[in-house]
Amino acid sequence: MEHVAGLCSPVTAGETGPESSDGPSEDEGLVDAFGDLAALPVEVEERRPTCVRCCRPVKVCLCPFLPPRALDVNTCLYVVQHPAEESRVLRTVPLLAACLPPAKCNIIVGRRFTEEKHPELAAVCQDSRTLILYPGPQSQSLEEVVRAGELAANAKHNIIIIDGTWSQAKNMFLKNSLFHLPRQVQLSRTLSSQYVIRTQPSNICLSTLECAAVALSILEENEDILEVLLRPLRALCSFQLQHGAQVHHSKEHLLKNGMYDKPMPKNKRKIKRMERLITDHSACPR
Length: 286
Ligand SMILES: [Zn+2]
Prior knowledge:
Helices cover 34% and strands 9% of the residues. It is α/β, with parallel strands linked by helices.
């Protein structure tokens, strides 16, 4: 799949909105037009001019919620991003990138990563100071690793985060042996996802921005980082909610509160997995 180019550069819509028509305004027509506008998915904004810093449509620019200066961090973040993620409208990674110095936030798009094609990433994966954030049986709690002093103090750590849907991330992790080299860590703290616009399969499955925010605040031992990074995300969510996006509770939340209205799956494995979502907080369905 090809990347959608130019999402971060100014894009001008080829046509103006219905309000540009001349002549006496017809109230009814106008009301209708607004009614239609309200019914449109929020995604339509993407065709409008885009802010170069936060990559949001200019009208809903989130720059006021970004820190005035890039955060000063020691940790170097590597976001390996599934190509489909780059073209999604509600992406959190551009907000993350806008909060960090460019050298500390590397975004590498692709599905398969090899030493030949990605020598820099391969070197990072082979670096003993690198961690990869991916839950699983071999994964250690990042907080515990830091608390136990297992990471060299003052070392400039690298952390790799996979950006994609759960199944994309799982595939990318399993099929790239480079990602099996770094120490595998996961987040143990419970932080219900702020990012409610996209349905999360479980409350503990966080958006990439949230994962990065939590991981960085743990590694840097600085809680302020979490607050600063989550601020634009909260603003994004509240904006989307004000403009008609529905709150997407996680499946876990819906099941717990008897609000899951999809017919129960016939497949026994699926039912088991749904039950596990309710009872087992460490089950992240990747
Ligand atoms: Zn902006």
